[in-house]
Amino acid sequence: EIVLTQSPATLSLSPGERVTLSCRASQSVDSYLAWYQQKPGQAPRLLIYDASNRATGIPARFSGSGSGTDFTLTISSLEPEDFAVYYCQQRSEWPPRITFGPGTKVDIK
Amino acid sequence: QVQLVQSGGGWVKPGGSLRLSCVASGFTFSDYYMAWIRQAPGKGLEWVSYISLTSTYTDYADSVKGRFTISRDNAKNSLYLQMNSLRAEDSAVYYCASPFYGGMPDAFDIWGQGTVVTVSP
Fold first, then answer.
1. Which residues, in sequence order, are bridge partners of residue B47?
2. Inter-chain CB proximity B104 and A56 less than 8 Å
3. B108 in helix, strand or coil?
């Protein structure tokens, strides 16, 4: 099973700051990497698919990069509504097996 | 509008059974893999199971294999999860989810509202 590791576990930041979140896979996942945002009491929201493509309606301040085993989600300038938990997710080629990272919490400093 | 509406869930004793349902609307359900994903209280997301467009392929997380069964009824735009031999560690919010690419269970962009399953004596 492919294991995803996210770092850091928690980030305390102020609005307007730039955020870089890391997701590392235990083996190559090519570009089959997605990022989600989850707020308390809500279902996750897809932000990025295929490592670098923004999902429908996602603001341009969110961007994804990476391939293979190392991936990054960047928020160029934190908005108040961006304080949440962020998860990465991969699926293996075939048969598709899906795993999520443990999440990174971005909270207000 | 595109949505997934879940039902089922609730409280059950260890060893008991529950069936979750998820009804899709606003998109061509039969064109999409579907999945169940759960989240234990205060924990992260865990993929549970997925099913292919015509039910040919299914897969399960090792933690539920042999106890849970996923199924779908394309005529009713419905997805199901039959959960048997439930354990305390199965307590979670269960989400049904639809992927961005219909033909592969990956990058889930449509989520149900979630349903709570509690397993305790």
1. B37
2. no
3. strand
Residue B20 amino acid letter = L
Which position has the token pair 């099973």? A1
**Touching check for A95 and chain B: CB below 8 Å?**
yes
Partners of residue A102 in chain B, C-beta under 8 Å: 44
Cβ–Cβ gap B100/A46 under 8 Å: yes
Query: In this structure, what DSSP letter does residue A55 have?
Result: P
Q: What is the pLDDT of residues B65-96, one digit of tens each?
A: 999 999 999 999 999 999 999 999 999 999 99
Residue B4 contacts residue B114 (beta carbons within 8 Å): no
Distance between A75 CA and the closest CA of chain B, angstroms = 19
Chain A / chain B CB contacts < 8 angstroms: 61
Distance of alpha carbon B107 from alpha carbon A46, whole angstroms: 7
Say how far residue A8 (Cα) sits from the centre of its chain.
Answer: 12
The answer, for A39 touching chain B at a CB cutoff of 8 Å, is: no
A39-94 pLDDT, tens per residue?
999 999 999 999 999 999 999 999 999 999 999 999 999 999 999 999 999 999 88
* Residue whose entry in the numeric block shows the structure tokens 């998820």: B22
